[in-house]
Amino acid sequence: MGIVITLLMLAGVGLMLARKLPTAFALVLLGVAIALVAGAPLTGENSLLDTVLQEGSVALASTMLAVLIGSWLGKLMEETGIAGTLVRKIVEFGGDRPTVVALGVLAVSGLIGTVTGSAPAAMMAGIIGIPAMIAVGVPKTTAAGTILMGIAAGMPFELPVWQFFSTALELPVDTVKAFMLRLFPFAAVFAVLFVLVESRRKGVAHTWSLTSLDERPDERPGGGGRGRGRARRLGDAPWYALLAPAVPLVLALGFELAIIPSMLAGVVYALVTTTRPREMNKRLLRTLYAGFEVAAPPLTLFVAIGILLAAVKLPGAIDALAPLVKAVSPGHPAAFVVVFTLLAPLCLYRGPLNVYGLGAGIAGVLISAGVYPAAAVLGLTASYNQVFGVADPTSTQTVWAAQYSGVSPQQVMLRTLPYVWCVALGGLIVTAAARL
Questions:
Q1: Distances (CA, A) of 305 to 7, 120, 137, 248, 338
Q2: Between 19 and 44, the higher pLDDT residue
């Protein structure tokens, strides 16, 4: 039976890689097939309908709500000019120094990445940041990679990600937070290293112009009302509103407030500091509805992941898969690091170790079968998430950043993969040292 389930998983990977089925649909079908092969009854305890489809579909509800609020806050930051102002300020500070501009955009991308991930974060940081970097001489591939590496550097502090790992792996949020704090230095150091090394590569320089940085009459000496006129023209948010991305982090890290209230506080702060009272209701609803549109794909995916996790945790599935998984899983800490570091590329192209795909099911099997403690599986999946979030040519943020920069996603993958592979290695070493 274990071999049959394994073959089903491989078939699911094949369907996703061949783009015959969307990832969410493939995961749902895989969950149903695993439940049937595992001998689950139709209804009742540990059943197909009640356990896998009913309970599994809402198992990650708290994660879905956190993702929705993060998308809402991201839309507020976009509409109110908070995100654009952050990028413009950094670009203006960097002037015509390519490395300084790139490092500044990297920092802003990281800050935005703590609020929301994927394509929305890439667009908020990249719409201004990418043309600004290319305009001062940063190579196109490096400009795209800088946005992605920045988002990944902020990912350890992305509260919806904390909620996802906490719920999916049945771990306390404090355990997730503790590992993410250890992972962050690796993500930050290699992101900075990427900029310092790759920005010096020979590339096409000064090919784009950034009209928002052009000098205007009221910015020249003697041009009265310079600050106010410039802010009106560019849509700058007030300086104190720029703290909005940090509000959820301060509350969750500094005051240990729960994730969802912390994120809601960020929404309220962004609204109050940028919007007149009579316009608040309309802006709240408008950005909330827009947030639903942004969040729809990940919400659908989390429903499917919940179904798959429920299926692989069925007693029949555990009994069938445990012997196979234990036989191939490295037990020694050094072997754990070496083997899973070499396997890191399997999270690319929606591969079997992608935590937002079949990798979630494998993580569930590793925990349910008692192969590794849940905290060790957290380290494995979170480390792989760094690779997927930056270098996967099929992820939405990578595709957008590459196309907007005028290069292919595969070019971005080749440039960024060595750096995020090292981040994953660091995360795996920390995991092996602390949990195995």
A1: 19, 21, 42, 26, 28
A2: 44
Q: DSSP for 318-331, please give it.
A: HHHHHHHHHHHS--
d(CA 259, CA 417): 31
Burial degree of 256 (CB within 10 A; 0-12, 13-18, 19+): exposed
pTM above 0.85, yes or no: yes
Residues 400, 109: Cα–Cα separation, whole Å: 14
Query: What pLDDT shows up at residue 235?
Result: 60
What is d(CA 279, CA 265) in angstroms, rounded to the nearest whole number? 19
Entry field: residues in the chain: 436
Q: Phi and psi for 232 in degrees, rounded to 5? A: -65, -40
- Nearest Cα neighbor of 139 from 73, 79, 205, 87 is 205
Within 8 A by CB and 6+ apart from 206, the residues are 134, 135, 136, 137
pLDDT digits (tens, 9 = 90+) for 270-319: 999 999 999 999 999 999 999 999 899 999 999 999 999 999 999 999 98
Reading the block at residue 163, the tokens are: 């909620």
Percent of the chain with pLDDT over 70: 92
DSSP 51: I
CB 107 within 8 A of CB 147: no
Structure tokens at 216: 């205007």
Q: Please name the residues in contact with 148: beta carbons below 8 A apart, sequence gap of 6 or more.
A: 109, 122, 389, 390, 391, 397, 398, 401, 412, 416
CA–CA distances in Å: residue 40 to residues 8, 264, 333, 362: 16, 40, 35, 19
